[in-house]
């Protein structure tokens, strides 16, 4: 840890320029920090931060996800911190994260929380990432074994037809995460899954018994629409169950995040009623489809090479295949 150009005092404001921090496969550079705190709180065993304004954080990971997982499994804090640290407001203008030579940027991060011993309590966290507004609240145990639980919220501003909002409760450790997902827009979708790290990829599995797969649809491991170089993230979905439009949906396939997300998914849906979202289109539909696509500059691009539709729509029988 190196610091440069420290000015001020605890009774007014402290400013620090050019902070460098290296640990394991991670490096962090902070451009400028402005800190205001209440020094009298130290007599009660608490460091009270009134405000902490950070201009820019550049966070770089030089190793792959396996190395990060191994590093995190040993704990992010090795010794117990002897006092409580409470922050009324932490503001970060820009966060730059670089993993495996891929860069991600988030803006306007605002955090309120406390660090009690080795437990981080996030009371409120908000940020803007690309076209997503993201919020989080929860607890993180920073000592080994690292564990967490909390609630994640999001709202997207893509195109009018693909605007999305929802929430997700998460809990787990570095090896496994349980998710309860509740999508609210553009229509309601609810699902529960278990996310595991296996063989250089994440597997998202449903927690219900496997649903029968139709023989006339392709496997969920069809060719990806991503490019041939090594992806940053591979998410394999296995029998992920969801409830939406008064029916049930089973998903198999994978999501690959390279320079942008791409997906190749097999969908089996039963008892779908479009009228629950669009009252002028009542029905009961069975849908089997293979859906491929990618998100290019915030605009979804879709391909549906296999599609079967059966049921009733507007009180009339319907059948389509393509």
**What is the helix/strand order?**
EEEEHEEEEEEEEEEEEEEE
SSE class = mainly beta
In terms of per-residue confidence, which ranges show pLDDT below 50 for 5 or more consecutive residues? 208-229
Main sheet specs: 19 strands, mixed
Q: How big a fraction of the residues is strand?
A: over 45%
Give the rounded overall mean pLDDT: 80
Share of helix, binned: under 10%
- Number of extended strands: 19
Number of distinct helices: 1
Report the principal-axis shape. elongated
Radius of gyration: 23 Å
Query: Roughly how many Å apart are the termini?
Result: 60 Å
What order do the helices and strands come in, and which of them pair?
Elements: E1 2-8, E2 14-23, E3 26-38, E4 46-61, H1 65-73, E5 84-99, E6 102-116, E7 119-129, E8 132-141, E9 147-156, E10 165-173, E11 176-185, E12 189-198, E13 201-206, E14 233-244, E15 247-257, E16 261-272, E17 283-296, E18 299-313, E19 316-321
Features:
322 residues, mainly beta, 19-stranded mixed β-sheet, 3% helix, elongated
Explained architecture:
The protein has one helix at residues 65-73; strands at 2-8, 14-23, 26-38, 46-61, 84-99, 102-116, 119-129, 132-141, 147-156, 165-173, 176-185, 189-198, 201-206, 233-244, 247-257, 261-272, 283-296, 299-313, 316-321. Strand 7 and strand 8 (132-141) form a beta hairpin. It is an all-beta fold and 322 residues long. It has a 19-stranded mixed beta sheet that branches. The radius of gyration is 23 Å and the shape is elongated. Residues 208-229 have low confidence and may be disordered. The termini are far apart. The protein contains one helix and 19 strands. 3% of the residues lie in helices and 66% in strands.
